[in-house]
Amino acid sequence: MRVAVVGATGMVGNVMLDVLAERNFPVSELIPVASERSIGKKVIFKGEEFTIVGMETAISMQPDIAVFSAGGSTSLEWAPKFAEVGTTVIDNSSAWRMDPTKKLVVPEINASSLTADDKIIANPNCSTIQMVMALAPLHKKYNVKRVVVSTYQSITGTGVKAVRQLENEFEGKKGEMAYPYPIHKNALPHCDVFEENGYTKEEMKLVRETQKILDDRTIAVTATAIRIPVVGGHSEAVNVEFTNDFDIHDVRKILSETDGVTVQDNPDVNVYPMPIYAHGKDDVFVGRIRRDGSQPNTLNMWVVSDNLRKGAATNAVQIAEYIVENQLVNSLVS
């Protein structure tokens, strides 16, 4: 497979290269792509050096798959151009997620909807991915009616600039600010830009993307997204109201049997998910599973995942694995 990684020098792009190597994805030719200022620089993949090229060069090489992690405007401009030459694009930005003609895919949930005609596939938002991984199997059994979620999101979701801001503040240095306020020893109730309804784009992604992935527009979702000075991953306090009542032991059993989910739930010995342990791992970790005593049919759980891996790079590579295994890529379509 000729595989282009667009945004190869970015934070997600670097993890993408790691995940492709770790999972032994069948890369016969790697095409690292980045902005003009990075053309000619090198990236390392499986111990070999590869030269970064620009968009036009990458398109002329007609990759089988292109994984985009370069921002929404870049994806809107260039993803269709890759698709025109037969490349299957897996896009990690928000550009195509709510486009009704594009699939929004978490492989464990809805990869079976993909066909060879899907040339631009949207990778969901990181905070959405980990939440729906926990919700999807419970929705099948109990029918999710309403979700109230508060997120506690890693600065890595903002990018390298935010990591530098935290490091500078920790060391007492002045530097470029990714956020309007200090993040060290702080919590910002502000992820992405504010919309007219008073919610941020990040909060509304949790609403809209959850409904699309679970294919149920009746699910009510309300969210508050908070940025905290953590590197390892995103955490979420999720309150779920179901149509049907549940048994708490069955909930734990269902989640523990779900591919890609690890239950860590034994408060008697202080076992619960934390980003410090999720860092570098691909699973979604669920704990603090308990009934909400304030109203019927309602569950509380704490969901943690590495936002750069399952929340971005790993999910994208899993999509690529699915389309290769099912021969949905141009070079494999009989």
Low-confidence stretches: none
Total helical elements = 10
Tally the beta strands.
13
Which sheet architecture does the biggest sheet show? 6 strands, mixed
Q: For the record, what is the CATH homologous superfamily label of the largest domain? A: Dihydrodipicolinate Reductase, domain 2
Number of domains: 2
Mean model confidence by pLDDT: 96
Q: State the strand order across the main sheet.
A: 9-8-10-13-12-11
SSE order: EHEEEHEHEHEHEHHEEHEHEEH
Helix content: 25-40%
Overall 3D form: globular
Structural class: alpha/beta
* Radius of gyration from the alpha-carbon trace, in angstroms: 20 Å
Q: Note the gap between the termini.
A: 16 Å
- Estimate what percentage of residues fall within beta strands: 15-25%
Report on the structure:
The chain is an alpha/beta fold and 334 residues long. The chain folds into two domains: 2-124 and 312-332, Rossmann fold (3-Layer(aba) Sandwich), CATH 3.40.50.720; 127-307, Dihydrodipicolinate Reductase, domain 2. The chain has ten helices and 13 strands. It has helices at 11-22, 55-60, 72-84, 107-110, 126-142, 160-170, 201-213, 248-256, 275-278, 309-325, and strands at 2-6, 29-33, 42-45, 48-51, 65-68, 88-91, 120-122, 144-153, 220-227, 234-242, 261-263, 284-291, 298-305. The strands form three sheets. It has a six-stranded mixed sheet. A five-stranded parallel sheet has the order 2-1-5-6-7, with helices on both faces. A two-stranded antiparallel ribbon has the order 3-4. A hairpin with a 2-residue loop joins strand 3 and strand 4 (48-51). Helix 1 (11-22) crosses helix 10 (309-325). The longest helix is centred in the middle third of the chain and has 17 residues, at 126-142.
